[in-house]
């Protein structure tokens, strides 16, 4: 069993001539033509989309997980900091109203009557 990969233009716009699978000197079980319009290769799974080994994809996943973990820790630290600052702000507020220095009192009726005349 063999498959034919047609010629294509790679990412550098260079024409790559067509070839048949399996390639000479390649894996004998790679009898399918896999890939995209700009990269084609022989593979053993007709549903394979990426020409990379699974270890490459594993390291990509680990890198993404590490990056997301660091971002989550930074976000968590920011939220904790905001909560602590809000608590400190609320707990240090004075319980009573501020003294403006003016004490307003009701005038007596005797005092009011004498000042009018």
From TrEMBL:
<keyword id="KW-0472">Membrane</keyword>
<feature type="domain" description="Shisa N-terminal">
    <location>
        <begin position="4"/>
        <end position="48"/>
    </location>
</feature>
<dbReference type="Pfam" id="PF13908">
    <property type="entry name" value="Shisa_N"/>
</dbReference>
<keyword id="KW-1133">Transmembrane helix</keyword>
<dbReference type="InterPro" id="IPR053891">
    <property type="entry name" value="Shisa_N"/>
</dbReference>
<dbReference type="InterPro" id="IPR026910">
    <property type="entry name" value="Shisa"/>
</dbReference>
<dbReference type="GO" id="GO:0016020">
    <property type="term" value="C:membrane"/>
</dbReference>
<keyword id="KW-0812">Transmembrane</keyword>
<protein>
    <recommendedName>
        <fullName>Shisa N-terminal domain-containing protein</fullName>
    </recommendedName>
</protein>
């Amino acid at each position: 069993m063999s498959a034919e990969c047609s010629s294509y233009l790679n990412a550098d716009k260079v024409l790559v001539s067509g070839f048949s699978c399996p390639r000479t000197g390649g894996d004998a079980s790679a009898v399918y033509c896999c890939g995209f319009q700009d990269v084609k290769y022989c593979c053993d799974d007709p549903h394979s989309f990426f020409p990379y080994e699974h270890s490459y994809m594993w390291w990509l996943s680990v890198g993404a997980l590490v990056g997301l973990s660091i971002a989550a820790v930074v976000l968590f630290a920011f939220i904790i900091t905001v909560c602590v600052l809000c608590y400190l702000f609320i707990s240090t507020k004075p319980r009573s109203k501020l003294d403006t220095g003016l004490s307003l009192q009701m005038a007596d009726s005797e005092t009011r009557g004498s000042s009018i005349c």
